[in-house]
């Protein structure tokens, strides 16, 4: 699966993964407005062997297949992410 990654210029360390390049139509309009402007940074093949620095590639693949996008946000100040169990 191919993913196209965009960096938000408004929200630091926030990245948007899309299933199709420049296909912003799959995002809710309020979310898109909160992230813009967006700058394309890379395209990446999300193979089973692929690792990503701050997000689970399996979750990215599932989100891309399900809704067409995945939003990667920075970790909380204490280092936790939304994937951590409390």
TrEMBL record:
PROSITE patterns: YCGL. SUPFAM superfamilies: YcgL-like. InterPro entries: YcgL-like_sf, YcgL_dom. Residues 1-85 form the YcgL domain. It holds the Pfam family YcgL. This is YcgL domain-containing protein. It comes from Xanthomonas graminis pv. poae.
């Amino acid at each position: 699966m191919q993913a196209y990654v965009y960096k938000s210029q408004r929200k630091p360390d926030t990245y948007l993964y899309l299933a199709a390049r420049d296909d912003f139509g799959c995002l809710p309009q309020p979310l898109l407005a909160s992230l813009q402007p967006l700058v394309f940074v890379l395209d990446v093949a999300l193979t089973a062997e692929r690792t990503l620095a701050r997000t689970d590639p399996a979750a990215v693949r599932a989100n891309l297949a399900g809704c067409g996008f995945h939003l990667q946000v920075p970790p909380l100040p204490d280092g936790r992410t939304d994937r951590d169990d409390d």
